[in-house]
Write a structure and sequence with these properties.
- There is one protein chain.
- The chain is α/β, with parallel strands linked by helices.
- It is built from 14 helices and 16 strands.
- 36% of the residues lie in helices and 20% in strands.
- A hairpin with a 2-residue loop joins strand 4 and strand 5.
- Bound molecules: zinc ion.
- The site of zinc ion has 7 residues, from helix 9.
- Zinc ion (ZN) binds next to helix 9.
């Protein structure tokens, strides 16, 4: 499909040919054997005998307790919170340590008797690869089991990103760390489901079995996720179980995603959230959309529709704010905010979210745009619906936590929160 990947790569002047290692990745004792042992241990394939299956569930529960803290967790905490015997709790911890997932820290604070040994997630063992495929390049990073990005690598591609470029970028960043690479996630603009890129208009791809291609190249289980879904998963890193959240992405296009807790609602064909080409403008002032129809949400509310053709998804927040400060942009933003709030009103009446997050590049539009969306939303309250908080996304979360968690979900479920800070508020039972 590609004669020479080198020809496709244009590297910006001064860019490193090699991945930027942000901090020293400590040498780990984890080897290929231990990794395959771990993957086998946590495999959820049907047909596990009951005992193995219960043990796996208990390992995941213990791992989740250690990861979520907030105080240093001990073997006694695990026994208490799971209702298992201390002998079983100790044996679970021994296995987690043996697999390289958990380390002993110093002594935990005394609860009266002898001070017990604290436990924490072993940062130095395994890594997760996240590759974010953009229309003009690829960002590949390695994330540790607490969510910290430990290495990053950016590739700019001219003439369109192809599959070989994704595989090359993933290989480049993970070189030398293959034995520690536990899982990978590739994020793409387009419809993705079951490891397959069903359709990406932006990339010109259709029915690409990307997960299996990358998985074979890396030797690690790989998932594929849509870019707006990934953004919603990142916003959901600290979501409590059961929190329903609608995330709307504003960029060159418009998309949405719904999460419950930290789980994505994918829809029957992986297309849940494809809201951009729903017609919401019926009166005058509607313009032709890039899909060929007119009055689509995207034709009114995309960043390009509001800020003009000078906007691209590669712009930084500062330049985007500048574009948003002109009188023409202001007027179009007012129109866009009204169209958006109309769409949000209908969707939120359907799904009853606690929160609506306007993400993507939208934060650079400033408080006025958000205020207009909120005002318009409140102006026509739908009888019988609850008030909904509307806010901007949190760019400070970065863009890798959601995809990294998505990569780990088939192995550990939701056990590792990957909040980068390590500990978050305990998740309420559900
Ligand atoms: Zn359209």
């Amino acid at each position: 499909m590609l004669a020479s990947s080198d020809r496709m790569f244009t590297r910006p002047a001064g860019a490193n040919r090699h991945p930027v290692i942000k901090e020293t990745m400590a040498v780990s004792t984890v080897g290929p054997q231990r990794k395959s042992q771990l993957l086998q241990r946590f495999s959820s394939v049907a047909g596990l005998d009951a005992q193995t299956s219960v043990r796996r569930e208990n390992l995941i529960r213990a791992l989740g307790l250690i990861a979520r803290g907030p105080d240093p967790v001990t073997r006694a905490t695990i026994a208490r919170q799971t209702g298992l015997t201390s002998a079983t709790a100790s044996s679970l911890v021994a296995e987690l340590i043996d697999l390289g997932l958990v380390a002993e820290t110093g002594l935990a604070a005394s609860t009266g008797g002898k001070r017990a040994t604290g436990l924490e997630i072993e940062r130095r063992s395994y890594l997760i690869l996240v590759a974010v495929v953009r229309t003009r390049g690829i960002d590949a990073v390695l994330v540790d089991l607490t969510g910290r990005t430990v290495a990053s690598h950016r590739v700019e591609v001219s003439g369109g990103v192809d599959i070989a470029a994704v595989v090359d970028a993933a290989r480049e960043i993970s070189r030398g760390h293959e034995a520690r690479l536990l899982a990978a996630c590739v994020q793409v603009p387009g419809v993705a489901g079951g490891g397959i890129v069903v359709e990406s208009v932006q990339l010109g791809w259709r029915d690409v079995p990307l997960a299996s291609i990358v998985e074979e190249a890396l030797g690690a289980p790989t998932s594929v996720v849509n870019d707006v879904d990934a953004e919603a998963l990142t916003e959901a890193v600290d979501a409590e179980n059961g929190t329903v959240r609608l995330v709307v992405h504003l960029g060159e296009g418009v998309g949405a995603a719904v999460t419950t807790g930290s789980t994505l609602m994918a829809g029957a064909t992986g297309r849940a959230g494809e809201i951009g080409h729903v017609r919401v403008v019926f009166e005058g002032g509607r313009t032709t959309c890039r899909c060929g129809l007119s009055g689509c949400l995207e034709s009114a509310t995309s960043m390009s529709a509001m800020l003009g053709d000078a906007y691209t998804d590669e712009l930084d927040a500062h330049d985007t704010s500048l574009l948003a400060s002109t009188p023409e942009s202001r007027e179009r933003m007012g129109f866009g905010a009204r169209a958006l709030s109309r769409a949000l009103r209908i969707v939120s009446a359907l799904i009853d979210p606690q929160e609506i997050v306007i993400a993507g590049a939208a934060q650079a539009l400033g408080p006025h745009f958000l205020g207009t969306v909120r005002d318009e939303f409140e102006m026509y309250p739908a009888k019988g619906t609850s008030p909904v908080r509307i806010r901007y996304g949190r760019p400070e979360l970065g863009k890798y936590l959601g995809p990294a968690r998505y990569a780990l979900a088939p192995i550990f479920g939701d056990a590792l929160p990957l909040t980068a800070e390590g500990k978050v508020a305990p998740v309420s039972p559900g």
